[in-house]
Specification:
By secondary structure, the protein is mainly alpha-helical. The protein has a single domain, classed as SMc04008-like fold. Helix content is 70%, strand content 0%. The chain contains six helices and no strands. α2 packs across α6 and α3 packs across α4. It starts with 5 loop residues before the first helix and ends with a helix. It holds the Pfam family DUF1244. This is DUF1244 domain-containing protein. InterPro entries: SMc04008-like_domain (IPR023163), SMc04008-like_sf (IPR036810).
């Protein structure tokens, strides 16, 4: 592999992240609880990681602001449009995982 400088690597990582977020916005039928059960992270985790990164750099960011970055709208709006109540099976699987 060609050696990649730190700035270029950051640009590549940012591009991959933007593509992941776009993909998740295009797939609202993929529920957060299913993502958590299968992969151990969800859209909310991504938004929390953004908030954490901002705070590590001394930038104030609210949970609502970081979620809007990931969801492309307010979390409440996204939930009302796309998030049905979790099924009993989804909730059981989530409970077996424990906290994330």
């Amino acid at each position: 592999m060609t050696e990649i400088d730190a700035n270029t690597m950051t640009e590549l990582e940012a591009a991959a992240f933007r593509r992941l977020v776009a993909h998740l916005r295009e797939r609202p039928e993929v529920q957060n609880i299913d993502m958590m059960n299968l992969a151990g992270f969800c859209r909310n985790c991504l938004s929390n990681w953004i908030k954490d990164a901002a705070e590590e750099r001394g930038l104030a960011m609210s949970k609502d602001d970081s979620r809007e970055i990931v969801y492309g709208m307010s979390y409440e709006e996204w939930k009302s449009r796309h998030q049905p109540e979790a099924t009993l099976e989804q909730q059981k699987a989530f409970d077996l995982r424990g906290s994330h």
